[in-house]
Amino acid sequence: MKRRVTYIFLIFVTLFAQSQCAMCRAVLESEAGQTTAKGVNDGIVYLMLIPYILMGGLALVTYRYFKKVSKKN
């Protein structure tokens, strides 16, 4: 039951997230060359990846630390 509630929550969050930037989408879709739209999309992906890379690096450092401490015991 808890898993089903989580899936429903994720679906609603996704639906609302797509409607947040309607003005930006309208301006970018009206451009003829679509070069600005491609640049904005690349920027969004770049900004999205940085926190994941940082958290992944922190998780790796923490994992190695605890693995090293458990070998000493």
Keywords, separated by commas or semicolons:
single chain; 73 residues; mainly alpha; flat
Helices and strands in order:
Elements: H1 2-18, H2 22-29, H3 35-72
**Structural class assignment:** mainly alpha
State the total count of DSSP E strands: 0
Rg over CA atoms, rounded to whole Å, is 20 Å
Cα-to-Cα separation, first versus last residue: 41 Å
Note the overall shape.
flat
Low-confidence stretches: none
Biggest sheet statistics: none
Tell me the domain tally: 1
How would you summarize this macromolecular structure in one to three sentences?
By secondary structure, the protein is an all-alpha fold. The chain has helices spanning 2-18, 22-29, 35-72.
Task: Explain the overall architecture.
The chain is mostly helical and 73 residues long. The chain has one domain (2-72). The chain has 3 helices and no strands. It has helices at residues 2-18, 22-29, 35-72. The protein is flat, with a radius of gyration of 20 Å.
